[in-house]
Known about the structure:
By secondary structure, the chain is α/β, with parallel strands linked by helices. The chain has five helices and 13 strands.
Amino acid sequence: MQLIDLSSPVDASFWEPEPLSITTMSAADGARHLASEMREHFGMDFDPAVLPGAEFLTNDTLSLTTHTGTHVDAPAHYGSITTYGEAPKTVEQLPVDWFYRPAVVLDLTDAPVGAVGADVLRAKLDEVGYTLSPLDIVLLNTGAARLVGTSKYFTEFVGLDRSGVDLLLDQGVRVIGTDAFSLDAPFTHIIEQYQKTGDPGVLWPAHFAGRDREFCQIERLANLDALPRAHGFTLSCFPVKIVGAGAGWARAVAVLD
Length: 257
């Protein structure tokens, strides 16, 4: 069995539109912290020098959004109102069997910045000779992963329009993944189209589709070029159970026999 990591890192050295900080307590600092805790809670003078190397345990404190790095968007991320008769699920409520499924990757690296629709996806599925089955996971290789860590990662990629999302959901797909920042077109492209047309339908159609039809997105995947074939593998992408959250970080891994 071969495992291929398809996740982008949570890295404070990368350029991010939202503040991201990671503070690490070193093993030496951990020993000093332990001595302080022993004194405060147990009234005991504890000498850190008795520990191996005068060190204890490290600890890391992160300040970040749930949309940093590779993550799964839950239906609750798309809004509080749905048309399918139930409250939108938060990330800890999602069925785990959605996130270990056969997957297919579609190459959209030749698409321009903006959004593609059902016609392009049909052509790409025909190109790789794949027929979708219910609960398959569809991955979009937009080429955006090569821009991770730069401001261009958030402005130069291709997303899906509503017809593209509907095509996949019609076939029973419930998880759609992309190596881009968003399943929608870049923010700058969306605003430009809205200013030109005045059509509210161009405003984040891939996300707002989730108000009408229950599904999840995996955003900010990586390394899709490392997959040796377009299908014939399983994707494992379980989101972290953050109670009440609209998204959760995920370690996405392709499993190939």
